[in-house]
Amino acid sequence: MPKVLGWYLNAKTREQKSIKAAIDLLRKDLDVIFIDIFQELPPPNQFDAIFHKPTLEWNSEDSTIQEKAHHFVSFLRDNPSIIQIDPVDSVLMFTNRLCIDEKLSSFSITFNDSDNIWTVQSPCSLHLLGSLEMALADLQEMHPPLPCYVKPSKSCGPRETHQLSICSTLEQLLACLHSHPTQEFLVQECISHLPIVHKAYTVLGECIFSRKAGSVPHPTSDTQYDFDSQKKFSIDGAVEQEESSLNPIPQALFAEIASAISRLTGVQLFGFDVIRKSDDPHRLYVIDINYLPSFSGMDEAPEAIRRNILKRMGIEISS
Fold it and tell me: What is the pTM of this model?
């Protein structure tokens, strides 16, 4: 009898083309069963592995949806013999920017290719926790990196979780915090960079793919800039030309970054965003990580996800 893979992915994720294709491919190797977390959960001994991403539900403003997500997470935690793709507590880290930032606090890579030495790190950051009064008191003793991104601690869920700001002065930062008195924030250094972000997608052990996308321009004035992190920015032709004149980021370096992130977070199916410093294009910064992203433009993603999951389930892979 074939092994059984249960799966629950939030509605947004399961509608992504690459994910739908991967599920269809897995049906050829496994008995694949959708788990409806809003109904009574099936007996745990029914499953050999569970592929899951309940992150939107975990951060939902609807208490009933949130309760169902918590119940499903407890189900996974209470049944460690079921192979989890990926480990539930590793996946839940991606619901909170502060958790991910803490994991990356000591992240550093030095990479040598034939002609260049590359360095990779995460930007400087501050965590502003608790009440507004506590956050303001913290800022009196700290030296926040300016200009900076101001990001809500929650990284997925309601609309406000992807409403970000760039503040160029301490006064702007204080005003931004005053406008959101009940939230906790990640304050992250805004690195001066060519307005291009290198988006890398990885299925660990199988493949890695990178593409270029437009980035939020570096602030050039003292005006606070508010934006939606899900907005797509275009790449200006002159910027594209400047980027093409630089040494390309080696694919082997993207792979090394992916391996390091996987060791720190415990996940194998993820994406990350990299920028290169304006005055030192061999100095890179990892500015964002996403669990189970769209894999947009990565044609090999469905087959790679299939192979990754089958390997973790100890199944011999057929072509």
Answer: 0.93
